[in-house]
Every structure is written in structure tokens, then in C-alpha cells.
Amino acid sequence: MDCRALIGSVGLALGYYFLVAPDLEGRPFCHKVVNLGFTMWKDGHNTNVFPNVHGIGRDSLAEIKEEMAGNMEWAGDYRYVPGLRADDPGDLVLMYFDRPTRWTLHVERPPTRFKERAWIVVPVDFTLGPRPSGRPEGPGEMSERISTEKFKRRLRETLDFVRTNDRPDWQVVVAEHTKFLESIEHVR
The pTM is what? Predict the structure, then answer.
């Protein structure tokens, strides 16, 4: 094979990979299953409060492990905000995918690299309830796909809500998620 043919082949392969090939990274989990897990947990504990283990997101989210039939592998891609209740404003962020992704739904065809990355947030109402602010933002499966600016604003509003409503261990919650917000300050 001559040099031009090799360069052409490499160029085609790279072009396919970067421009056409699907992006298989960042696939979200089924939020309907997560909603069911939270619902079963709240029903089993006869409460409208979402799990809160000393304000620590990972430990709190792990509380629904039994309701998820032990399947918590998906939780490694999410961050959870303890201290919220089912009757809180629906647009507060209950949990979010820990990085921007091109995906919207776990069941869709893998998106191409042309699709812009955005944040997936799972709100307190799983986008099912009425909102004072109007309709949920962005498409999603019991979730919303939003820009970085909207994500940061919504997460800050959620942390302010947890703090001003003096939820248990709010200091730990605010510290954990503020640190995350600072880590993504320059993410686009």
C-alpha cells in the first residue's frame, strides 16, 4: 500500500470515528426504574422524605439498593442530593448525571458526535408534577437534558433550598455539591 492510500485510509477511519460514529460513552440509566426504587423505598418507610444518610450523597443513594434488586452499578454515574422530600418544588435537582453527555434516553440509538453534550438532571417530581415555573426543561425520560448554565443555576437553587429550609445535614450536602460545582466551573 502506498503512502497516499494509507493516509487516505487513516483519514477515512478518523473521519468516521470523530464525525459519524456513535458516542457510546455517557449512557444514562433508566429513570423510570430509579423513580420506582425511590417510590418503593418511601412507601416501605412510610415517608415522603428521600433517603438521607448524614448528608452524604453516595451513602444516601445506596439506601434504595434493596428496592433496585441490588443493582446499583448505575449509581456510579450519578450524584444525589440528600435532604429533599417528595412534596418539595418539583424542579429541584434530586440527582444528576455526573458529566455532560450526548445521550437523552437510555433506550435511544446512540447519538453521533455531532450532538452537543448537555447535563441530565432528575428533578424531585421526576417531571411528572405541576411546576410554578411552567413546563419541564428539555427532553428526557423522567429527567431533563439542560445546558451547563441551567444545570449550575438549578443545582445552586437546590442547595439554597436545602440550606434555607434547614434540612438534616444540609452543611454536608451543600459542601459536597458546591465542591462539584467548582470542579466544573470551566466545563462547556
Answer: 0.81
DSSP per position, 119-151: EEEEETTTT-S--TT-SPSS--SSSEEE-HHHH
Identify which of 117, 101, 114, 110 has the alpha carbon closest to the alpha carbon of residue 15: 114
Sign of the CA dihedral with 128 first, then 134, 140, and 143 last? negative
Burial class (CB in 10 A: 0-12, 13-18, 19+), 127: buried
Length of the chain counted residue by residue: 188
The count of C-alpha atoms lying within 13 angstroms of the C-alpha of 177, restricted to the half-sphere facing its C-beta, is 32
For 61-90, the pLDDT digits (tens) are 999 999 999 989 999 999 999 999 999 998
Torsional sign, CA 67, 72, 78, 82: positive
Every domain of the chain and the residues it spans: 23-183
